[in-house]
Design goal:
The chain is an alpha/beta fold and 278 residues long. Helix content is 22%, strand content 23%. It is built from seven helices and 14 strands. The strands form two sheets. It has a seven-stranded mixed sheet with strand order 6-5-4-3-2-1-14. Strand 5, helix 4 and strand 6 form a beta-alpha-beta unit. It is globular, with a radius of gyration of 18 Å. 47% of the residues are buried.
Length: 278
């Protein structure tokens, strides 16, 4: 399984486009490309996306991704930084010639919001019009799509809006998509027990400035707690790639500071374009 991290930012991106906070100004001054963060999205092999946000075109062109090969998009939740209805609308006949359908997977709520946004654009009133097939998923109910195994897990985020984490398996390898959540809920830990994780992408929205945040999003200390528990439970071992991602500029941290903090805990720090082979 090959995972490419296309975006590592929270909703505002980084540096936030209108923001003059100290962190955003420092990022602009330094010019380190690892601090320039697009909204969160991940590519699995060549055919699967997890989330499809407002930076999709920029990500595809910057990292030379052929989006005509995408067969499915898994949506973690309906927030705008993870769900880009406008670019999906360009699949509509008359704008583009699309010969192959894609499947859109997510909770009933998430898919409903996506359809309403497509309709609000004034062109599409059904998924079929953009050659898409909706597939509803439910937390803690295993599903398959082609050769992909999918276990949706409940996220501690956006109460009442059915946010999901994903345990995704293919070819004997397993990826945990664990962003946009606070410290994992008890039932999530129950479902992770006995499973081996080859790579985990862990929410670090609140970063070093709010390092102890545990609800809704995670700070850096909470990411360490999650990583340690994964190792204690045997879900992760020395071969597992544990990666902090989904950073907000409000967390007040630059990439090198994050690397220095996480290195002793054997946690990697994601940057846009990072590829993981597991």
């Amino acid at each position: 399984m090959r995972i490419q991290i296309l975006g590592t930012a929270a909703a505002e991106a980084c540096p936030a486009i209108f923001c003059d906070c100290e962190n955003c100004q420092e990022i602009r001054r330094r010019g380190d490309v690892r601090d320039v963060r697009r909204r969160a999205s991940y590519l699995i092999d060549e055919d699967t996306l997890v989330d499809f946000g407002p930076d999709a075109f920029f990500q595809a062109t910057a990292f030379q991704i052929d989006l005509t090969k995408i067969r499915r998009i898994l949506f973690t939740h309906a927030h705008l930084d993870h769900q880009n209805a406008t670019d999906l609308m360009w699949r509509h006949r008359g704008y583009s010639r699309c010969s192959k359908p894609i499947r859109l997977l997510g909770s009933h709520y998430t898919l409903g919001i996506l359809l309403s946004r497509l309709s609000a654009e004034g062109e599409s009133i059904s998924f079929a019009e953009v050659l898409a097939e909706p597939v509803e998923l439910a937390c803690y109910q295993e599903a398959t799509d082609g050769d992909l195994g999918i276990l949706p897990l409940e996220a501690d985020h956006a109460p009442g809006k059915a946010p999901m984490l994903y345990l995704i398996s293919r070819g004997g390898k397993t990826l945990l998509v664990g962003n946009d959540t606070g410290y994992f809920l008890p039932k999530v830990w129950e479902h992770l027990a006995g499973k081996h994780i080859d790579a985990a992408l862990l929410d670090c929205t609140s970063s070093l400035h709010y390092a102890n945040q545990e609800r809704g999003h995670m700070g850096a200390n909470t990411v360490v707690k999650v990583a340690e528990r994964l190792r204690e439970m045997g879900c992760a071992d020395d071969s597992s790639r544990l990666v902090a991602t989904h950073f907000s500029h409000n967390g007040g941290s630059i990439h090198t500071d994050l690397e220095a903090f996480f290195a002793p805990h054997r946690i990697e720090v994601a940057y846009d374009g990072l590829a993981l082979e597991v």
